[in-house]
Amino acid sequence: MNPVRGFVRRPGRLAAEGAALVIAVVVAFPLYWMVLGAFKPAGEIESDRPRPWTLSPSLDSFRRVFGQQEFGRYFVNSLVVAGSVVVSALVAFLAATAVTRFRFRFRTTLLIMFLVAQMVPVEALTIPLFFQMRGFGLLNTLGSLILPHIAFSLPFAIWMLRGFVKGVPEALEEAAYIDGASRSRFLWQILFPLVLPGLVATSVFSFISAWNDFLFAKSFIISDTSQSTLPMALLVFFKPDDPDWGGVMAASTVMTIPVLVFFVLVQRRLVSGLGGAVKD
Q1: What is the rounded distance in angstroms from the CA atom of residue 82 to the CA atom of residue 75?
Q2: Residue 256 CA: distances (Å) to CA of 79, 140, 189, 262
Q3: Can you tell me the distance from the alpha carbon of 162 to that of 38, in angstroms, rounded to the nearest whole number?
Q4: pTM of the entire structure?
Q5: In sequence order, what are the residues at sequence separation of 6 or more whose Cβ sits closer than 8 angstroms to the Cβ of residue 278?
Q6: For residue 161, which of 120, 106, 206 has the smallest C-alpha distance?
Q7: Of the candidates 137, 129, 273, 91, which has an alpha carbon nearest to the alpha carbon of residue 213?
Q8: How many whole angstroms separate alpha carbon 256 and alpha carbon 216?
Q9: Is 94 helix (H, G, I), strand (E, B) or coil?
Q10: 145-174 tens-digit pLDDT
């Protein structure tokens, strides 16, 4: 290696690493402030001179959060909704395989519809979805949250998984058939493991979207609070005259833990999934 060339590269590399570090700090600071606020005593949170540290951490905010009678139910409801959306990724895998491996009428139109569905703002569809859920008799039920999230996550998942399925060589499929493998065996024992990283990547995005949803939960769960999810639990601490910011920060911290756990469990496959499809 030319030492002069390496010397010229080094300042650019240091600048890139420095910029990445600054961006990481900017992104991580709100999370740090949230966790810090959860452990701060009430006096420090309400102080007009906030400090980015505390010398007397307290668990009072967490006690108030877990002291809410419905908090456990909200947690389970969020798991049910987000888990249902993740399971629906299997449907996206089958649909992506169908639109990639088979030729049928209106195939291109269907793919364009998947893409167009991602361009429509969720806020613009909330009112029509409200009337639709009311017509189905699903208001004040978890079904009114599960169905819209699946409807919005499937087009994205199908479009993303299509690239992974397409990246699997057709020669591999032909070789499997020559060796006597059935179509279902090829689908689940050969194609599915190869596409699994992409499936994990789409599942993570769908899980986070459903887990953090507030708009649908606020619009479709009107009177039956037992069907509410964790984002709705934050409203308990937003009092008109005296909001409990410690409770808000503590509840937000608790909400973040399942997402972090899910991310840690799938991080290896997530990285490979974001890296691209299988190459021939």
Answers
A1: 11
A2: 13, 25, 34, 10
A3: 42
A4: 0.79
A5: 164, 167, 168, 169, 194, 195
A6: 206
A7: 129
A8: 19
A9: helix
A10: 999 999 888 888 888 888 888 888 888 888
Buried b / exposed e across 223-245, counting CB within 10 Å, b at 16+? eeeebbbbbbbbebbeeeeeebb
The token duo for 215 is 């708009």
Determine the 3-state secondary structure of 256 from DSSP. helix
34 close to 235: Cβ distance less than 8 angstroms: no
Tokens linked to 143: 């079904």
Lookup result for tokens 């999810």:
229
Helical H runs in the chain?
Answer: 3-39, 42-45, 60-66, 71-87, 89-101, 107-117, 122-136, 143-167, 170-178, 183-185, 192-211, 215-220, 230-233, 245-274
